[in-house]
Amino acid sequence: MRKIEIVTDRVKMKAEFNESDTASKIYNSLPLESSVRTWGDEIYFEIPVDAEPENPKETVELGDLAYWPQGGGFCIFFGKTPVSRGDEIRPASAVNPVGKLEGDPKRFKEVSDGDKIKIKKAD
């Protein structure tokens, strides 16, 4: 079980990584710090991890964490994106699922473009 903590000025939340190779690469690169970019109800930011598509998904679930192979980014999904259809949550392009938030994903609505974010291994 690989638990992580995601921390911003306004939100602190635990999450759990799955057993995928992509999740392992990200977990082994922690801690990571960056600036948030928002796209609808998605947070994403570049990370120094290079992973090929692995079980890529065109749609995700509320609270999913994913790696975006096309942009080398880490993604947190907490609602619809500009390309969502109906109630689905759709990334810009297919993503590798890497984990799931353990709290209320909608709390990430409090995070703004440009805010600092840190991902670290949980104690």
Question: Would you give an account of this structure?
Answer:
The protein is mainly beta and 123 residues long. The chain has one domain (2-121): Cyclophilin, CATH 2.40.100. It has one helix and nine strands; from the N terminus they run E-E-H-E-E-E-E-E-E-E. Strands 3-9-1-2-8-6-7-5-4 form a nine-stranded antiparallel β-sheet. A hairpin with a 4-residue loop joins strand 1 (2-7) and strand 2 (12-17). The longest helix has 8 residues, at 21-28. It is globular, with a radius of gyration of 13 Å. It starts with a strand and ends with a strand. The mean pLDDT is 97.
Q: What CATH architecture do you see?
A: Beta Barrel
The largest β sheet comes out as: 9 strands, antiparallel
Indicate the CATH topology: Cyclophilin
Radius of gyration, taken over Cα atoms and rounded to an integer in Å: 13 Å
Structure annotation, total helices? 1
> What does the overall shape look like?
globular
Query: What amount of the residues lies in strands?
Result: 35-45%
Summary keywords:
globular; single chain; 7% helix; 9-stranded antiparallel sheet; 123 residues; Cyclophilin; 37% strand
Task: Give a concise summary.
By secondary structure, this protein is mainly β.
Task: Give the helix/strand layout.
Elements: E1 2-7, E2 12-17, H1 21-28, E3 32-35, E4 37-38, E5 42-46, E6 64-68, E7 73-77, E8 96-101, E9 116-121
Antiparallel strand pairs: 1-2, 1-9, 2-8, 3-9, 4-5, 5-7, 6-7, 6-8
